[in-house]
Every structure is written in structure tokens, then in C-alpha cells.
Specification:
This protein is mainly β. The protein has two domains: 31-174, Jelly Rolls (Sandwich); 263-606, Neuraminidase (6 Propeller). The chain is built from two helices and 43 strands. A five-stranded mixed beta sheet has the order 1-13-12-11-2, with no helix packed on it. A four-stranded antiparallel beta sheet has the order 3-10-5-8, with no helix packed on it. It is globular.
Length: 618
Amino acid sequence: MTLRLTGVITWAVLQTVGISTLSFAQASDLVFISLNPCVVFDTRPSFGGEGSLDAEEERSFHVVGSTSDFAGQGGTAGGCGVPAWNGGSPVARAVLINYVAIAPQGAGQLKAWAFDKTEPAQGALVNYQALTPAMNNSNAVVTELSQTAEGLDIKVRARSAPTDVRGVVLGYFSQDHITGVIAGTGLTGGGTEGTVTLALADAGIGVQQLEPLVAPPGIAISAGTTSAGWTPAPPGPTGSTGATGATGNVGQQRTGPERPGFLVSTIASELGFESYSSATIGVDGLGLIAYYDESNGDLKVTHCADVGCTKGTTATVDGAGNVGLNPSITIGTDGLGLIAYFKGAPSGQLKVAHCLDVVCSSATSSILEGGFSAGNASSSITIGSDGLPLVSYYISSVGDLRVAHCADMTCSTATLSTIDAVNIAGQSNSIAIGRDGLGLISYSDFITQDLKVAHCSNLSCTAATVTTLDSTGIVGGDTSLAIGADGLGLIAYNDTTNERLKVAHCSNVVCSSATLTTIAGQVGTAASPSLAIGSDGLGLIAYHDVARSELRVAHCGSVHCATSSVATIDSEGTVGNNPSVTIGSDGFGLISYRDSSAFGLKVAHLSNVMGVPHYRRR
């Protein structure tokens, strides 16, 4: 519930007047507090766990607080944000955990219950079985926590067959929340539900209430017919005029707009023509940009030194020769960067680099697939609802849309699956996790020239439902997908036939159909759109205006982007190729893109949600 104070009333005044009752929830009245998905335990030794659960084995785990040895049970060091006990009493009463049975060795069930309770006679949480190829099984379940003493919180048992188990915390339940505000002496209003208002009652403030506040010298309280407030005391007599001071220096004249819509910086130069980049925001709130240095054949990462990325530190994270093509970067559940990219000729490879620190000064790299001609390859990486990386990718010499589901947070190995092998499908793929916890991938079909989308059937995305969303003309090139504020997919893509930028807003979670919109105000061929959801919950699309050789942004006016506004961000030279947009910790867009004139990499930091000068929200 929200406590809203009206008029010129400070909390000190409320205390002196008195709130007679601030009531809290009963034991049966719990509120759910959601958390970012966080691994609290994983039995696999590669994650720090003690090994798989044997058949009928029971194991206990810590869930609450931050001081337990979470890393020793394969979880995230420092815990997952479930509050610890306070004053000898539990704060969290239950947790929502996604239990994942990994590589089971037979048919069985997972059960979980509070550490201080006996095992329930019934109630399997996850049913699992051994399949070929191996498939994980999961289910999100509310599990009660131990309420009698601090220490271990839950117990988990594997029934009938051994299996590894991962627990991903999604939120917790607590009764420590306000359920009512009752007005005391001197106040009116209050209530037990919804948003309530407290106001001063008639004659509600007297000498007794004012004395503890100690009004500042020269300030008095005055009352009118409808309001009261602090007013300055009448001024005293004017003193004599003092001597005239020396003339000050002439101030500097301002030039340019008072509130520019963006700031452009160059962070790398002499990279060659194919300097593709990908940007994200690290756990320190600063930009992390992966890019391909064609001149040296390296994968490099720049860690921004400030929110606007006016400067940064750069490291080579893979210099094995002609590596770093078409990178895609995200932040893993361990808070460190993960980059999917390709190695080019003579022997193509799909690789993943796992940063070893927040600034990504170095990284380990793994080969997920090799032995092909990289050619026109593309990839996109995200973090699945099981806390593991999920990579969509396309290789022109193969001609299929494929997905790699990583076995651990570093992606040292992965399960590879073919999703669409019809025609030559998978170019310009982009992946995100939908509100159902499953992957959603947009891509183009080279033969039919259509925009297609694949909705994963399981966490590992070993299979998917494929839908054609737009087949009018030559469409679907350079797709970029994000999950909107309404929980549905939003896809930006090229309409090559009409030389326009288009947006598809999915009608449901699986995106079996979509509403298609052409971006207004965009004239001439648009290329390489990159889409993110802004802090206002609306789509922000960075793209290259080919006709003008400019970097532009389109800001959606609604969640389905039926209307939009377009602004030019950079028009100095031939700029804007292959942009990558993310939303900074200040809530504004951060865009990395190629400067083809100087063979460099530039960053534009928007100063508002729309990237336009003189913008102010009314």
C-alpha cells in the first residue's frame, strides 16, 4: 500500500500529531516480492555443488540471507536477495523456486519442503525421466521456509532415480508489509486498502504539536481560510547602502542547444571496415561493448568509464586470429559478461567468451561448434529462465537456424539443436526470453524473404514452433527482438521492397501472429535496426539511414509501436552502420555503432528517452 501525504505536512508533524495505528499483515496474509532469477543451489560440481542426488537421497540447502556458504552449494555467492532473519524472527515465510532436474538417470520425482518440517506424504514438484537426447525438466513451486530457527532452510529429495538439481529463486513471500493506516488525533483520512490520503483535521495542530518542531528563527506559521503554512516574518528596516564592489569578469557566452538530445564519443579507431559491435550494461551500471577489430582479427571489449561512455578501458579477450565476427553480449547470472561470436576463415567456429571480471579485462573462451565456413554468420545470446546462456545462431554454409543451450554459466559446453532447417533460414537472428520463461527468436528466411519467429518448446530449446509473421515483399532482414512492457515480443526489421523500417508486435506469448507497423517519418532505406525497451516501457530503435549515411533513432509512442518519432543522432561522415542499443543505468539509450569514414567505433549516449534536443516530459 502507498502512504501519500498531502499539503505541507512533514513526517515530523505526523509524529507529533500521532498516527494511532499502522497495522501489519496477519500470518495468513502474505505478499509476494519478485526477484531477478538467481541460482541459489546447483548440485553439479562444476558449479560448486556436492554432486548429483542419489535415488532417495535427501539434501538440505540455505536460501535466506547473504552470509551462508551459497557458493559451496553451487549457488550465487552472497545469496539471492531473500531477506535474512531479523531480531530472531523470520522475514521470508516462503520462496518461489524453479526446480530443474538436470540429466536424470531414470524416472523419478523431486520433492521439497521446509527444513523444520517432515516430508509431505505426497506432492512431487518435478517429474523427470532419462531421455535421448537428454532433456531437463523444471517447475516453479512455492516452498515454505524453516520458521523455527536460523540455519538451513529447505530440504530436497530425489525419488526413485539419481539426478542433478538446480534451484533458481524467483521471489519470496513475507508478511512484513503495511495493511492499514489509521488517522490519529489531529488527522483525517487513512484506510485499510488501496492508496490512502492523510490530511490535517480542522484545529488539528495546536501549541502542543508545534513546540517539538522548533521553528527556524524568523519563520512563523500563518493560517488562512483554506490552508496553513510557514511564512517569513515581516522584514526589518533597510540598512544603508554599502560601497560599490569591483567589476567582475565577463561571463562566457553559451553556444549550442541548452539541452542536447545526445552526446557522441569515439572509443576506438583504425578497426577496419567490418567493426561490428554489441552493447550491454554491466552490474556496475556502466556500458560493456564487445566488438570485432578487423585490422587485427581480434575480439575486443571496452568497459565504459562513465554512464555516457565518453571514455573507457579496452582489452583483447580473444586474439586467436580472425575472431570476434558478429559478437553478441549479455550479462550472466554471475554478474560477468558473456559474448557469443564467430571465428572466420580458414576454419569457422561458434565461440563463447566468459569474462573473468566486471570490466572484462580477460576472458575464457569455448568452442561450441566448428569446422564450417563462417561466411554470413550471425548469433544472439541471452540468459534463460534456468540461469544458463542460450545462443541462437546461423551459419551460411549450413543454412539452418540453430540453438546452443549452455551446460553451465561459462558455457564451456552446450547442447546444439536445429530449429528451422526449411529453406535457408536463420539469418539476422535475435533471441529473448518471453514471459513464459521460454526463448523467442526472430529471423529471416533467405529463400522466401520472409520474417519468421520461433517459440522454443522447452528451456533448452531443443524444438520450437515456427511462424511466418510477414511475407509481403522482401522483408525480415536485420531483425532485432525484445520483450515489451506488456510481456509480448516486439521485433524491428527491414522492409527492403518498400525501403522502410517496420515493427511487428506479437499478439500472444508464442507470437503465432503479430500486428505490423511501418515506422512513420523514416524515408529511404533503413538498415541494421537494434531494439531495446526504454525506461518508459516503450521501444527504442537505433538504425542506419543508408540514404543519408546517418545514425537515427525511432522512439515508439505505444507498447505496440503504432506511432513513433524519429531523430537524427549522428550525421558526421558515413556513420550509423550496425548499431547496438541498450538502456543505461540512467534510463537513457546507449548506442554503439560503426564510423565507416574513420574506420572507428563510436558511442552515442541519449540525454532523454527519445534522443531529441530540448525534450522535457510534461
